[in-house]
Amino acid sequence: MNGVRLQPTSTAVHRGWRRTLGELPSALLFLLPTVAVLGTFNFYPALYSLYLSLFEWNGLSPHREFVGLANYTRLLASGEFWNSLRVTLLYAGGVTLLALALGLLVAVLLNQPIRGQALYRVLYFLPVITPTVASGVVWKYLFDPTQGVVNRGLAEVGLEGPSWLSDPSWALVAVIVVGVWKRVGFNMVVYLAALQGIPKTYYEAAQLDGADSWQQFRHITLPLLAPTTFFLVVTALIDAFQVFDLVYVMTSGGPLGSTDVLGYYLYRQGFRYSELGFASAVAYVMFALIFLVTVIQFRLTRGGQDDA
Amino acid sequence: MPKPWKAVLIHLLLAGGAFLSAMPFLWMLTTALKPESALYQPPLLFPVHFEWENFAKAWQAAPFPRFFLNSAVMTVGIVLAQTLLSAMAGYAFARMRFVGRDLLFFGVLGTMMIPFPVTLIPSFLVVNALGWIDTYNALIIPRAVSAFAIFLFRQFFLSLPRELEEAALIDGAGRLTIFFRIVLPLSTPVMAANAIFSFLFAWNDFLWPLIVTNSPDMRTVQVGLAMFQGQYGVFWTLLSAAATIVTLPAVLAFLAAQRQFIAGITNTGLKE
């Protein structure tokens, strides 16, 4: 009898307990590896980086000296840093805008009822998935002043090309070309999907009203693509602010710092000169830059939703 | 239907662009097949006779077999870990009820906003403190989880009907059994899409392997290629052969899983 009477009570207690904890035990089992890895290699490093930026430390010595904001003031007073910031913004702006325009152009052309779409799509997309190091190696050859195909091509039409990667005023241009080459396919694929989502009836209505192709593009296609464009600009900027591999392989930041992007500057300070505190300050400046773009994106997309 | 002249114009433009897009690959391949002496001849796109030896020379000039092994181990490790762990986490977030679930999920998504350079130095210090420099642990474990993949898996699990799992729950099956017996077999499409992303990420990755490996024995193909370039600066035939070897797996993987890959990109692009 006792047992029968106890049974419901214990289940009720059990239920109450379960309600507070939910499925915590099994959830822990499922989430433990994720929490451990993201905690150790994302959250903790992000905070620790900020902390490190307040110290002067070479990574080896047991002593690290607290210097407050000195790394940041040193950064802001450094011509190298401002040059690096300028180069990064030029690279990011150049790659983002050019790849956006070309990606849209290719997508619009591919959106016509023509043959061979699948083949074109693959050809334009290949650079996206090519390893950046291999791309850098090959493009370095293409840009070789005497043997490279770029200058040989220019010579064929009677032009003398610059010495590209060893010329301070052309090296960044060359790196941007490769950045654009690697990005167009991605933009094209996303734009193409967005274009295919625009209802044909909009264009038919516009044609009835006598709108020509350009007017249709300007007043129907472009406005309807705005959210896609926005997404592509933000992701391209965030990627481009962090560029490293291409610069490492093609120019090592040179000549004369003309391609010394922030990612490479950070790498040099941290891993060549072992200035871990100073490099962490550089990292946080990059973080701020990227965070700014993300915040702007968040604000604007919210604004867009309010309008709709 | 476009007028004929318009179609021709479109094809001309597209073919011109596609040529520019593919030209570096062609150039890489044809250079890799040229004898060194033919380099200075006028820019013939196709070599007159094929010098397959360049591949063998490049393969032996640096420890490429070892680089390949390292990259293969790292890539397989990352793909398996990211797929399994992300599926598990995505499942917990989609189906289980527990304290702090939403907070934790936002935390996971939040890690996507932390740029890699910010975590680089402390992550290196952690790996160093663990004694993992020059080990597969260092190459795999820090990247064993992908927040993006967790998000994809969660979305997918939310779209699955609950009935199957509920029936099993009533029969007394535990969450692990349900996950491995019922849910995972249903998620092959997401697993495939995710695997190709992970594969390309891991195979092409450069900065992290560069930092956590010192010994030539632990270099991955990308780091190995960069080092190779440092040594063989202007031996373009060998460099092109090496670059071709390193690029091939990425291109093959992409061609094999093209549809899933492009669908994955457009889905995320449009959802934003």
Automatic annotation (TrEMBL), chain A:
GO biological process, one term: transmembrane transport
Keywords: Cell membrane, Membrane, Transmembrane, Transmembrane helix, Transport
Cellular-component GO terms for this entry: plasma membrane
Topology relative to the membrane: Multi-pass membrane protein
Entry keyword annotation includes Cell membrane: yes
Main subcellular location: membrane
Keyword hit for Transmembrane: yes
Transmembrane segments: 27-51, 89-110, 122-142, 170-194, 224-244, 276-296
SUPFAM superfamilies: MetI-like (SSF161098)
Record domain ABC transmembrane type-1: where: 85-297
PROSITE patterns listed in its UniProt record: ABC_TM1 (PS50928)
UniProt cross-references to Pfam families, sorted A to Z: BPD_transp_1
Location of the protein in the cell: Cell membrane
PANTHER family, A to Z: ABC TRANSPORTER PERMEASE PROTEIN, INNER MEMBRANE ABC TRANSPORTER PERMEASE PROTEIN YCJO
Family, similarity comment: Belongs to the binding-protein-dependent transport system permease family.
Protein name stated in the entry: Lactose transport system permease protein LacF
Organism: Meiothermus granaticius NBRC 107808
From TrEMBL, chain B:
Record-annotated ABC transmembrane type-1 domain positions: 68-257
Residues that span the membrane, as ranges: 67-91, 103-127, 139-157, 178-203, 234-257
Compartment(s) where it occurs, according to its Swiss-Prot or TrEMBL record: Cell membrane
Key words of the record: Cell membrane, Membrane, Transmembrane, Transmembrane helix, Transport
Entry membrane topology: Multi-pass membrane protein
Pfam entry (one): BPD_transp_1
GO cellular component: plasma membrane
GO BP annotation list: transmembrane transport
InterPro entries assigned: MetI-like, MetI-like_sf
SUPFAM superfamilies associated with the record: MetI-like
PROSITE patterns, per the entry: ABC_TM1
Similarity field: Belongs to the binding-protein-dependent transport system permease family.
Protein name per the record: L-arabinose transport system permease protein AraQ
Top-level taxonomy: Bacteria, Thermotogati, Deinococcota, Deinococci, Thermales
